[in-house]
Structure formats: C-alpha cells, structure tokens
Amino acid sequence: MKQFFGRIFYGRNGIDHLGIFTWCLTAGFFVATMISHSVIVYFIGVALLAWSVFRMLSTKTDRRYLENQKFDQFFYRIKYFFTDMKKRAEDRKIYVYYKCPSCKQKLRVPRGRGKIEIRCPKCSTTFVKKT
C-alpha cells in the first residue's frame, strides 16, 4: 500500500507554504459557512479546496514552485512590515526614525540629542533634524 501511494505521488508538487495558507483559508471559509449559512461562502471554500488539491497533485512542479515563490515574497513583505512596526514601537523611547531625503533609506538616530546633522550611510547625504 505504501509503495502504491509512493508511485502515485511521485513527481507531484505536494504541500508548500501557499498550500498550507489555502488549506487554512478553506477551513476559515467552512467555519464561516457554519456560522452564516451562506451558500456563496460555501462555494468559495469548495473552490479554494479544489484549487489547493489541484496544486498538491500537480505534476507541473516548476509552475507551482513559481506560484509559491511569489506568495512567499508577498507574505515576507507583510511579515516584515509588522515586524518593523513592532520594533519601532519598542524603540520609540530610545530612538527616532527618519528617511533620507535623497535615497529614502530608513535611519535610526538616538532621541534627545537636540539638532543634529545626520549622514546617510547609503548615499552620504547629510541633513539636519531635531531629535
């Protein structure tokens, strides 16, 4: 039996980050269906489930890999945004954040130093700000 399923699933894409996300989203839609009794929400959940199973069983692994890479890049941007906001909230009593006027690089300077001249390490532009 194990060899049988091994032969069936050989060369298939399997589960990846996008697959896990769609399974969780599908579960959310099915829970929302139980609460709201909406047929539209149910069909969206079924469509997501079908798409997820299609992706898992697909033999076109190069296409599924590219889809997963795009999802990972998008998810990383969202994750980085919230991680950055959390770090800024933790550091708000110690540091002030500015953007370089020429290259838009984020710069962190100590709080409470008065007017200081800030030099961007990326483009070497200097500008004066109050901390």
Describe the 3D structure.
The structure is a single chain. By secondary structure, the chain is an alpha+beta fold. The protein has four helices and four strands. The chain has helices spanning 2-9, 17-36, 39-57, 61-91, and strands at 95-99, 106-110, 115-119, 126-130. The strands form two sheets. Strands 1-2 form a two-stranded antiparallel sheet. A two-stranded antiparallel sheet has the order 3-4.
Query: How much beta, percentage-wise?
Result: 15-25%
Number of DSSP-assigned strands: 4
Radius of gyration: 24 Å
Could you tell me the mean pLDDT?
89
N-to-C series of helices and strands: HHHHEEEE
Class by alpha and beta content = alpha+beta
What is the distance, rounded to the nearest whole angstrom, between the alpha carbons of the first and last residues?
69 Å
Global outline? elongated
Uncertain spans: none
Which strand order spans the largest sheet, edge to edge or round the barrel?
A: 1-2
Q: What's the short story on this structure?
A:
It contains 4 helices and 4 strands; from the N terminus they run H-H-H-H-E-E-E-E. It has helices at 2-9, 17-36, 39-57, 61-91; strands at residues 95-99, 106-110, 115-119, 126-130. The N and C termini lie far apart (69 Å).
Question: Which labels suit this protein?
Answer:
alpha+beta; two-stranded antiparallel ribbon
